[in-house]
Structures are given as structure tokens and as C-alpha cells.
Amino acid sequence: MASSVSPSLPAAAPKVGPGVAPLRAGQGTSFVLRRLHSLSGIVPVGAFLVEHFISNAFATNGPQAYADQVKFLTNLPFAKLLEVFGIYIPILFHGLYGIYIWWRGESNVTDYPWTGNWLYSAQRWTGIIAFAYIVYHTYTMRFTGVHLFGNPGAAFGKVQLEMQEGWPGYAYAVGIIAASWHFAYGIWLFCAKWGIVVGDKARRRFGVVCLAIGLLFAGVGIYTLRAFFVTPLQPITEPGAKQVESSQAHR
Asked: Domain segments of the chain: what residues?
């Protein structure tokens, strides 16, 4: 007699709702590196970006105000150590490991329902653009021409010289917009990944806040950029830098 009991069907896999996958323990070195990458985007790289935008905004008050701010930063205790361990190394780690993640294609773009796949791609590309811009800007300002640690008055003129050579002026604008977008969306990703903002509704609302942050940074950056174009060319020699610092140069 045949059995009337039908064979049991396999249980259906539980449906996983959309959202950002949380960080999980037990994933070895990759977990640690990804966690450091996520954290470094906020501190210290994000903190440095905020400081940099604020410091550059002093250019809107003229070359002397800009020189005073550069002098303040270069005269901080252990300024060169802070520069290496608080800026260069974190930016290199965050940028290069971010490029590695993008190249390997390990991230699942369907985990980001707020922006969609194309905004996820924009985050990756703006990161690459911002990283290239930061490397170029750091090299030209820090390692070419007059040394700003001893001549902060030359900082305004060095930026002007770059911008008025042609394409670097456009590169500054593109770099500012890319860095603003990358940082703003990075805040959203950080808060979603670390469980600071939980739930689809809260994430959507926070997304609006992050969009406003990105637009604010881009607006301030572009407005600051304008100051370097409308101000008469400033000196970039050591004697000229001293004149700017003492407000004797034309403004």
C-alpha cells in the first residue's frame, strides 16, 4: 500500500528586505580593512576635508587672511608629523584601498536602494577623481615652488598660478565637486553600515540631509574658488610672501 504522506518540500529561503548590509564580525582581514576604510573616510580624512574647506574659505577675506590661516596651520605643534600621520597616510590608505575594492568589484550595488546603482557608481568614480585631485594639489602646493611652511604669504599666489595656467582651474572645480559628493554620500554609507541610521524611512530622510551637506560643501568650495580669480595676482617669491603677510602687497 502506497504511503499517503507526501514528501516534504524544502523550506523557502527567508526573504531579505532591501537595505545596507551591516558590518559583521568573523570575516578576517577583509572585515578589519573594510572597517578601517569606512572609519577613515570620516576620521581623519573627512575631518581634514572639513578643515580644508574652512581654511580655504579665508581666501574670500583676501590674501593676508589666507596667509594668516596658512601660518596658523603650519605653526601647529608637530605640524609635519600631523601632516604625515594625520593626512598623508590616512588619505593614501582610504584612496588606494577604495580603488582596490572598486577594482575587485566585491561590493553589492543592489544593497543601496536610496540612490540606486548609478549613484553607487558615482560614489566610486568621484572617489577616484577626488583622490587624483588631492594627490595633484598636495604635490604642487607642498612640494613645488616656494616652501609654504616658512612663507605662508605665498600660498594665495601659488593657488592663483595653478588656476590661471588653464586646465588646473577646471580641475579644481571638478575636484571640489567630486570631493563634496564623495564625502556627503560617504557619511550616509557610514551611518547606514554602522547601524547609526536604521530603517528605510530614516535612511531616506538622512539621505536628504547628506545631499544638503554635499551641496553646501560644493557651493562653499566654488565660491571660495572665485576669490582666487577676482583678486589681483599675488607674489610667490619669498620677499613677496613677506609683504603679503604684513599686508603691504596689493589686495
From this structure: 28-245
